[in-house]
Write a structure and sequence with these properties.
This protein has about 450 residues and is an alpha/beta fold. It has 19 helices and 16 strands. It has helices spanning about 10-25, 35-45, 60-70, 85-95, 105-140, 150-160, 175-185, 205-215, 230-235, 250-260, 285-290, 300-305, 320-335, 345-355, 360-375, 385-390, 410-425, 430-435, 440-450, and strands at about 5-10, 30, 50-55, 75-80, 100, 165-170, 195-200, 215, 225-230, 240, 265, 275, 280-285, 305-310, 340-345, 380. A 5-stranded parallel sheet has the order 2-1-3-4-5, with helices on both faces. Strands 7-10-13-6-14 form a 5-stranded parallel sheet. Helix 13 packs across helix 15. It is elongated. The termini are far apart. Mean pLDDT is about 85; it is low at about 135-140.
Length: about 450
């Protein structure tokens, strides 16, 4: 079996020897005498396996192995060293090495090891390809949308599902953050494990700590029986921490420690327990603004924001409103056993004109109401809520023939800033970026205009 091999060894003559010997055995070899250079080459090309010396100046073989395992776990690493010992072998395997060979070695022994490594790499690629094919064939369940913003989200979810990295899902209320979290779980290797969701909002710190970490009997006044925390209950699966931005500040360092160590200590116990979950967090808050205002820890933010999935508001999903509305019509007509075929043209125009501040959740509620009230086979304008029927987009209109309605530049600025803020769902950090304003400047303007959060 041939394959593309990357060799990292600070001894140039060893690199040349390996290149010549492996080339005769059908391998294509690229080599570098510096581990950092080898990592750079790896990022530019696709290799089936890596062969690295253990002892090198700067980044050594174990560090290179750890970096490859973290960033490209599908590429096997074979470690070669003249300093063979059980401790060295264990260190290499812990660093993620596929195999371990001591010098001096026979080239044919290395060939057999690399044949197995290349086969391992290609099998993993095939498994990923098949999983992707199955994922695409069964779709994303209740997540509907073919607009470019949603296609980008679903593509990211598809790729992120292959990883166990912590994910942060952000977006306005009603955009479907829990559905995305479930999709991450259902399309991952953990899909047979549990999916557990817990809201961090409006829950006292002690109660939330007990929910997450568990407690021993007698840990506090009402702890009459021991409780297994959700981090342990979700072992082998996924835990969604919804409204993570509302987690009490005092609990955040304990969560950070647990995520980093993959161990937890239940309330009232003296021993730590390991746990194995894929952590997904969700929020509609501006966490970076919360960090500046000391309401959220920066270190926890960076730890949970490994993969960021930002859900677009419904008003930014051109082309998705009517397909979603039709889906909800079909769903609720079955629920209430009514023959409702769809949405009339006039009602569709109203749905398209409305800005949907409550996003998909508001659209769903709107259609549920309309299906329940309609007397026709199609939803009519009169079946829609009044705010949808009577909605008018806000615009700044300048009539040059009527100077009485002209306004000052400050008023134009105020109206435009408030319109941008409405368009991004009140996310002040994003609004400041669009307006090219310092966030504190934006806050001062809003405070002057009497705009509260």
């Amino acid at each position: 079996m041939s394959g593309r091999i990357l060799v990292a060894d600070d001894d140039r003559s060893m690199c040349e020897l390996l290149q010549a010997g492996l080339a005769r055995r059908g391998f294509e070899v690229t080599w570098r005498t510096d581990a950092a250079e080898a990592l750079a080459v790896m990022s530019e090309g696709d290799f089936d396996a890596i062969v690295t010396d253990l002892n090198m100046p700067g980044t050594n073989g174990l560090e290179l192995c750890e970096r490859v395992t973290a960033n490209r776990p599908d590429v096997p690493v074979v470690v070669i060293t003249a300093f063979g010992s059980l401790d060295t072998a264990v260190a290499a395997i812990r660093a993620g090495a596929y195999d371990f060979i001591t010098k001096p070695f026979e080239m044919d022994v290395l060939r057999l090891t690399l044949n197995r490594a290349v086969q391992h790499h290609r099998l993993r690629d095939e498994v990923k390809r098949l999983r992707r094919a199955v994922t695409e064939s069964r779709g994303f369940g209740e997540i509907l949308g073919s607009s470019p913003p949603m296609r980008r989200v679903l593509d990211l979810v598809n790729r992120a599902a292959e990883s166990d990295a912590t994910a942060l899902i952000t977006g306005e209320s009603g955009t479907g953050k829990e559905l995305i979290a479930r999709a991450l779980h259902q399309h991952s290797r953990r899909h047979d494990g549990p999916f557990i969701a817990v809201s961090c909002a409006a829950m006292p710190e002690t109660l939330l700590e007990s929910e997450l970490f568990g407690h021993a009997r007698g840990a506090f006044t009402d702890a009459k029986t021991p409780r297994t925390g959700l981090l342990l209950q979700a072992s082998g699966g996924t835990l969604l921490l919804d409204e993570i931005g509302d987690m009490p500040l005092g609990l955040q360092p304990k969560l950070l420690r647990a995520i980093e160590d993959r161990r937890l200590r239940p309330l009232g116990e003296n021993t730590e327990r390991p746990f194995d979950v894929r952590l997904v967090c969700a929020t509609n808050r501006d966490l970076e603004a919360d960090i500046e205002e000391k309401r959220f820890r920066a270190d926890l933010f960076y730890r949970i924001n490994v993969i960021h999935v930002e859900l677009p508001p419904l008003r930014a999903r051109d082309g998705d409103v009517l397909p979603l509305a039709q889906h909800f019509v079909q769903h609720f007509s079955r629920v209430v056993a009514k023959q409702v075929a769809g949405v009339s043209t006039a009602a569709a125009e109203k749905l398209l004109a409305y800005s949907w501040p409550g996003n998909v959740r508001e659209l769903r509620n709107c259609i549920e109401r309309a299906v329940a009230l309609t007397r026709f086979e199609e939803i009519a304008v009169e079946d829609l809520p009044e705010k949808v029927q009577n909605y008018r987009r806000s615009r700044v209109v300048v009539d040059l023939d009527d100077t009485a309605h002209l306004v000052s530049m400050e008023e134009v600025e105020r109206r435009y800033i408030l319109r941008v803020l409405e368009a991004v769902g009140g996310q002040r950090t994003k609004a400041a970026q669009i307006l090219s304003l310092d966030r504190k400047t934006l806050y001062r303007k809003l405070e002057r205009w009497g705009v509260s959060e």
